[in-house]
Amino acid sequence: MEYSFAGKRIVVGITGSIAAFKVAGWVSTLAKEEARVAVVMTESAQKFIAPLTFSALTGEPAYTSMFNQAQSSPMSHIDLAQDASAFLIAPASARTIARLAHGIADDLLSTTVLATRAPVVVCPAMNPKMYLHQATQDNLERLRQFGYHIVDPDSGLMACKDEGQGRLVEWESVQEVLLRCLLKNDLQGERILITAGPTREALDPARFISNRSSGKMGYALARAAYRRGADVVLVSGPTALQCPFGVKRIDVVTAREMYDAVLAEFNNATMLIKSAAVSDFRPAVSFEHKVKKENAGETIEVVRNPDILYEIGRLKRDPEQIVVGFAAESGNLIEEGKIKLQRKNLDLIAVNDITSADSGFEVETNKMILIDAEGSKQLPWASKTDTAHMIFDYICQNLRKTGN
Ligand code: PMT
After folding, report:
1. N or C: which terminal CB in the chain sees fewer CB atoms within 10 Å?
2. What letter does residue 16 receive in the DSSP assignment?
3. Nearest CA to ligand 1 atom 27
4. The pLDDT value given to residue 70
5. CA 320 to ligand 1 centroid distance, Å
């Protein structure tokens, strides 16, 4: 798939830190995802982990020296630099960060990084006092100015028993930054507001009206948009999912909370994608204390919630702003989609058939029809991640006209 590491040349620079062993797992993951991985190790890194580990994982020698004829030509740093799709330096020690910040090319890694024009991702890992020292912070700032991507370390208990910020981040965050560097950034400059998940409308502190939305489709859209270069705000109803790296999440519970959040954020957005399943109704009364079944009536009176998307469609003035609705339908998909497209003044609607077991709510896959003013397009059955990318492909090609 175009949106993965497959076929990409990732040069991983490893420096002297106890966290070096963690990166063996990352290299293994990249190799399994069919990236072509080359590992460059500093002298200190080899004190923590053997080059053989990385050779075994990548299938090519770990590069350790500028002048090792057995490994490659003496020019191998230039070959590595030119061949790289991206550089990942992890763990990045204070010393290597200082070298890179000042262009000191005195070992294979620092020389290779200086010679590359590929994106560089740096993951610092060191003692918290070293990390917070002004010298390190200034050096990191310099690297940011070069356009390097710094993935800040996590906080916690260190191997040296100090506590604070300095632990090597987890792979899940690093892979997002790497993918954002590697993929086509056709959503760069877009500020995309996405809604996901269900809303909950309380009957009392124990019970609520809701629906089966897991948030998976909306979170896949948020992750895909970030990877393609957008700034992403995710307004999310209650879900069990982790906020995707790089995405700003605003948590809401009720439809009215979602309404307030979407209206507050919409003016600043270039695109709204409303994949949330909003409860159309809420109980007319929400009780402060749990209703005893002996005291409960047999019917629940409900009132209508605001239709957030309808309201946005009514208020929208800027023709550059793109508004995308979703629809969960159980029949007449195209007709129902067209009605919603027009009634809610949308640029595009993505319709899913919720009667199919492998599409719609909760499952990992989806099969959607996209409908706009020009016509409709059936997307193939695919994972929600691939579906999200196909929706953005369609938007770039047909609505923004920036795609190929
Ligand atoms: O979360 P998952 O488990 O991954 O499932 C994904 C999904 C099935 C929820 C998703 O793909 C989807 O179809 N979302 C829209 C579901 C829905 O609410 O459809 P609708 O036909 O009721 O609403 C149409 C549109 O109006 C939607 O964009 C909805 O967000 C919006 N709406 C609806 C009601 C309301 N009060 N306010 C709204 O803004």
Report:
1. C
2. S
3. 326
4. 57
5. 23
